[in-house]
Amino acid sequence: MQPEATRAAFTLSLVHFRRDERRVTALALLPGGTRVFLGLNSGVIEEHVFSAPLADTPGGGGGSGGGSAGAPPLRLVAEKRVFSRAAVADIAPAQSAARLACLSDDGQVWLLVLACL
After folding, report:
1. Which of 2, 67, 85, 90 has the least C-beta neighbours within 10 A?
2. 21: enclosing H helix or E strand
3. 8-state DSSP, 107
4. pLDDT tens, 77-112?
5. How far apart are CA 44 and CA 101, in angstroms?
6. According to the model, what pLDDT value does residue 111 have?
7. Nearest alpha-carbon partner for 114 in 26, 22, 30
8. Taken in order 42, 20, 25, 30, is the CA torsion positive or negative?
C-alpha cells in the first residue's frame, strides 16, 4: 500500500477577537461568505461584514487583533438582543427567506427577519 498523501488546503485567518467580557457561543456564515452572525452568551446576535477580503489582510488576518494592518477584517454593522436571560446556542440562516433562526441554551427558538437586525 502507498502512504496516503496529506493535504494542506487550509489557510487559518483570525477574523474576530473579542475585547469585552461577552463570549461567542454560536456562529453562522451566510452562503457566499459576505456576512457573519455571532451569538453571544448575553443573548445578543451580532451581524458583521468583512471590511477587507482575507487575501488582502496581511498574514491572512492573523495578528493581535489590534487596529493595525494585522487587524481582523470583521466590522460590526448591527446587533440585537434576542434572549433576555439565555445565551445564543445556535444560529441557522435561511438566506433565501431572509431569516435567521436562533436557538437559546434554554430551548427558546426565535425567527428573525434579516432586514430588521
Report:
1. 2
2. none
3. S
4. 999 999 999 999 999 999 889 999 999 999 999 999
5. 13
6. 95
7. 30
8. positive
